[in-house]
């Protein structure tokens, strides 16, 4: 199953946003990457981010990660995400202006309370299968 087949709606849009940021970051920091996308290290990060989005306890009501009270990334991956976003965030405005503005607006929303039980994308898929 393709990684984007797992996600729908807001989660898919968030994955596309992080993918755009990783592409900007990888192009600047890993010049010896393969010609078809990002380097292996960045691909692993995107796979990890995809899994975390799929399992986010908030599901489609997911806040931006820096506003989220539930920190689901491992510490080293959280640091890598922060590094990517700090570098690529300001550089998103020219190649992806709508994505950048939507992400900035989403960050202005207040932090939610505790997530509802079974709201993750993964739980939704399991309910649809049964």
From TrEMBL:
Superkingdom per UniProt: Bacteria
Region annotation Disordered: where it falls in the sequence: 109-130
One family name in Pfam for this protein: YgbA_NO
Record's protein name: Nitrous oxide-stimulated promoter family protein
């Amino acid at each position: 199953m393709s990684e984007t087949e797992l996600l729908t709606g807001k989660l898919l849009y968030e994955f596309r946003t992080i993918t755009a940021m990783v592409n900007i970051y990888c192009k600047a920091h890993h010049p010896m990457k393969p010609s078809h996308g990002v380097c292996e290290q960045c691909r692993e990060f995107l796979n990890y981010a995809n899994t975390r989005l799929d399992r986010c306890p908030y599901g489609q009501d997911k806040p931006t990660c820096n506003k989220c009270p539930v920190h689901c990334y491992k510490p080293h991956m959280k640091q890598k995400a922060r590094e990517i976003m700090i570098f690529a965030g300001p550089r998103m405005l020219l190649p992806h202006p709508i994505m950048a503005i939507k992400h900035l607006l989403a960050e202005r929303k207040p932090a939610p309370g505790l997530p509802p039980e079974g709201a993750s994308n993964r739980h939704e898929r399991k309910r649809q299968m049964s």
